[in-house]
Every structure is written in C-alpha cells, then in structure tokens.
Specification:
By secondary structure, this protein is of the alpha/beta class. It has helices at 19-30, 55-67, 82-96, 119-147, 169-189, 213-220, 241-252; strands at 10-14, 34-39, 72-76, 101-104, 151-156, 194-201, 263-266. Helices cover 40% and strands 14% of the residues. α1 (19-30) runs parallel beside α2 and α3 (82-96) runs parallel beside α4. Belongs to the short-chain dehydrogenases/reductases (SDR) family.
Length: 273
C-alpha cells in the first residue's frame, strides 16, 4: 500500500545532502510531502574525521525526491546562518503556501576528551548542534504559528543525548541540550497544535557513523569501549538511515497525534543495556 499520509504537507529538513537527512527527505516525499532542504555542502569544522557533504550530494537528494514525484526547494545554507534559514523558509512559504513538518537533523560529531579539545572544537560543536537547532526554530516557528495549521517539529538528537559516553562530551552536551530545548518548545507550542519531539538514534550507517577516528580514541583509552555496548536486539551492523526515517515519518503524520515532548529511542535497546 502506498503511504499518502502526508499528502499536501510541506517538510523542512536540515543537513539534507546525505545520510539521515537525505533519507528523511526521500521518505517524507514518498509519503506525499513536498520538501525544503538545506545543507552547508562545505567544511563546517576542521575537527571532523569524515568528509563534508558536497553540492553533488545535495543534487542527489533533489534527484531522489523528484523521483518520488514531489517538489523540492533547496539551499546551500549552514544551520549557523539564521538569516539564511529565514530567507529559505520565506521562499518556501511563497512557493508552497505552508510549512507543516520540520526535521532538525544537521549535526557534527568528533572526538576528544573534554579537557583536551580546543575551545574552537567545543564552540563549533555547540554552534552547529544546538545553536543551529535554535536558529531553525527561530526560522520555522513564526510562519507555522501564523498559518494556524499545527504541525510537527522533529529534532534528531542521539542515544548520547540520553546516555552520555566518554570521548565526545562536547557532542553529548549538545544532544542533551536538544532534549531540553525540545521539551520546553513542546510546552510553548502546544496551544498552537504544533508537536515537538526528539529522536535518539545510535550507530547509524552514515558518514558520521562510519567515522573511523573513534578507533584511535578507543585505542588510546580502551576502557571507554564498555560504554559503547550493543543493543538488546541483534546488532550485526550499523542502523540503516531508512529505519530512523520510519520513526520520523510516523512523528510527522497523524498516527502520532498524541505524542509531544517525547524522546523516541531508535537504538535497539542500547539505552537499557
């Protein structure tokens, strides 16, 4: 059966050029939504151990969304650029007439002990993962309220936003921060029929999830490996982004109408092990 639960809706996705962001765009489009997608498509911090997304990556997202028969508006915009996000949201409202779904997905992950990372590594992670989300909120919430259609905002946090792990305390701090922001925003937006939830993946098959620099950290600090346990379900490989998108599409649609201010795990039970 073809999923048409989001027909007539418009979804805004950050970090959309590849990985989870691309998967969320495609799956939302398959469910009937038109897409507004942004990505920096450039190096965003010198501290990542994986390559940045490119313009070609974002073009592939466009091709895949259009292959689902939906329209897509894109911009090469860093989530740290509040004015840029506001401009493309305004363009989206002009082109599509509405905005119903927001998937705040853009983030970075890199490694280092808290007292050994540089001030710039700390600041880049905070600015992208948490202030970037706040910028997204600033850009999308006013037009969503003005439209009066309700909606769903989905913040992609991490299992490390609930159960902190060593070696990336700066990342964990931002992802815990996403939970606080999400919960507060859900209360503030409830009167407008806008739901706000966070999703918490673990070990996802993306460029970030395949960053081999984690092995250097575990080599230098082997005791840390005990904090990276498998889940309760069989864990033979990293989680496919499409599996996380299943949850995103559900949170975007009417089947989750009672769910707000919730932290939805997507981690095979890792948080309970």
């Amino acid at each position: 059966m073809t999923d048409s639960s989001l027909t007539g809706k418009v979804a805004y996705v950050t970090g959309a050029a590849r990985g989870q962001g691309r998967s969320h765009c495609v799956r939302l489009a398959r469910a009937g939504a038109d897409i507004v997608a942004i990505d920096a498509c450039a190096p965003v911090t010198e501290h990542n151990g994986y390559p940045p997304a490119t313009s070609e990556d974002l073009a592939e997202t466009v091709r895949l969304v259009e292959g689902e028969g939906r329209k897509i508006l894109v911009g090469e915009i860093d989530v740290r650029d509040l004015a840029g996000q506001q401009r493309i949201v305004a363009d989206a409202i002009e082109q599509f007439g509405r905005l119903d779904i927001v998937v705040a997905n853009a983030a970075v992950l890199n490694w280092g002990r808290l007292w050994e990372i540089s001030a710039q590594q700390w600041q880049d992670t905070l600015d992208i993962n948490l202030t970037g989300l706040w910028n997204t909120v600033k850009a999308v919430v006013p037009p969503m309220i003005a439209a009066g259609n309700g909606g769903s905002i989905i913040a992609v946090s991490s299992a490390a936003g609930i159960k902190a792990v060593p070696g990336c305390g700066h990342y964990c701090a931002t992802k815990f921060g996403v939970v606080g922001l999400t919960n507060s925003l859900a209360v503030e937006l409830g009167e407008f029929g806008i739901r706000v939830n966070s999703v918490h993946p673990y070990g996802t098959d993306t460029p970030m999830g395949n960053d081999t620099s984690i092995y250097e950290m575990l080599r230098d600090h082997p005791g840390y490996i005990h904090s990276f346990s498998p889940g309760a379900l069989p864990t033979d490989s990293l989680i496919a982004p499409d599996q996380v998108s299943d949850i995103v599409v559900w949170l975007a649609g009417p089947e989750s109408s009672l769910i707000t201010a919730a932290q939805i795990p997507a981690e095979k039970g890792y948080l309970k092990i």
